[in-house]
Design goal:
It is built from four helices and 14 strands. It is α+β, with helices and mostly antiparallel strands. The strands form five sheets. A four-stranded antiparallel sheet has the order 4-13-10-11. Strands 8-5-12-9 form a four-stranded mixed sheet, with no helix packed on it. The longest helix is centred in the last third of the chain and has 42 residues. The relative contact order is 0.15.
């Protein structure tokens, strides 16, 4: 069955889809002072924690409340999406995994928390990764040295919203593709390591009597 489409302010989308602002389908998040909250030691995610080629959190640091960075203020939960507000065009964007549930990230991120009723993490994540979304947000940057946007700039941006079952299916398909790409990348990395070792052997010792 062919879909019918309609023209909207964000482009052509299926007729049964809606167009909404992020803030209409997300939950409020909170900022906390780790010292006043007596958090003790916690996992801290800052901009340098993000691998923007994979759109994943590559690492984090464990810090104590007493010596926490001044920007360590935003609470994060599993399934949240963090979107760097400084130079957003660099796409420092990632989903919070289980091991970082109830931890802290930098105020340099906008924390996007799906409400679970109208939308899900996967759908929001792939939408905020879109060049169209990032370009729209980046156009709102202010400041010369550290061009940045606000949480409000991010949450006021619009995205398409299909019915929830369709969101989940699309996100599942894209996630499967991502997993496939990652496996290929890992295979290439392993092949590069083997190649470097082989080059070292052949270019410094020759073939000799070994068979290849």
């Amino acid at each position: 069955m062919n879909k019918e489409f309609k023209q909207t302010e964000i482009g052509r989308i299926p007729k049964e889809w809606d167009v909404v602002k992020l803030r209409e389908i997300t939950l409020p998040t909170r900022s906390i002072d780790p010292k006043r909250a007596h958090l003790g030691k916690f996992k801290y995610v800052d901009i340098s924690s993000i691998d923007n080629t994979l759109a994943k959190i590559a690492n984090w640091t464990i810090v104590g409340s007493d010596n926490a960075p001044s920007r360590a203020r935003k609470e994060i939960k599993e399934g949240d999406i963090i979107f760097a507000t400084t130079r957003p065009y660099l796409k420092n964007i990632a989903v919070i995994p289980h091991e970082l549930d109830d931890q802290i990230c930098s105020t340099g991120f906008s924390v996007i928390r799906p409400n679970g009723v109208y939308t899900v993490t996967g759908w929001l994540f792939y939408n905020v990764l879109m060049d169209r979304f990032v370009s729209k947000v980046s156009a709102k940057m202010k400041g010369a040295t550290y061009p940045a946007v606000t949480d409000g700039d991010v949450l006021s941006e619009k995205i398409p919203l299909p019915p929830l079952p369709e969101q989940k299916k699309i996100a599942e398909i894209l996630s499967t593709v991502d997993e496939g790409i990652m496996k290929v990348d890992q295979a290439i990395e392993k092949a590069e390591v083997v190649k470097k070792g082989l080059m070292q052997e052949l270019l410094t010792r020759g073939i000799g009597h070994q068979e290849f």
